[in-house]
Design goal:
Elements (H helix, E strand, L loop, with lengths): L6 E6 L5 H12 L3 E2 L2 H10 L3 H7 L6 E2 L15 E2 L1 H18 L2 E4 L3 H4 L6 E7 L2 H12 L3 H23 L11 E4 H20 L2
Amino acid sequence: MSKNVRIINIGRQFGSGGRLIAAELGRILNIPVYDNELITKAAEESGFSKQLFAGKDEKRSLFSFSSFFSSGRYSMSDNYLSDNELFKIQGNVIRKLAEESPSIFIGRCSDYILRERTDCLDVFICAPMEARIKLVCERENLTPEDAEDLIIRKDRTRKTYYDYFTFGDWGVASNYDLCIDSSILGIEGTARFIADFKDLLAK
């Protein structure tokens, strides 16, 4: 059965190059890619400062927002904005953007938020630890040991965030339409593979 894909949701291990792959995929398909842009759009939608969302990006905890509050439509309760409220705001932005045009969303549980849609392709980008360490060392100017520690922490944070809000299991193959090791084809090759896979589904 053919599937006309308008939305691509990309989950990724830290250091797998997921953001770079998404950017290249957006260039190939000529559609917008939403990552940090979602923080700004969510802040605009709610009226809160984007610094609040940046500090909470794909993380779980309870933050005071007394120093961030501007004039948003969302109600205050004991000077706190909960994880669930932040997630709801960002989810509304993702759903609105998905309605407006074909898009690529990076992380932020977009596959779960858009789970009712039939035009989504859910992708997970992974890579062996040694390949991820190499990329993070180059990108962050870290030692291999520090890069590995950072990778482990970031992956744990993403998993905790995803599993909490989706009741799922981050990175488990059965949750996605396509899982791909970016170290095999590289950034451009992986992006091209996803684009070709998308076209194959339409046939």
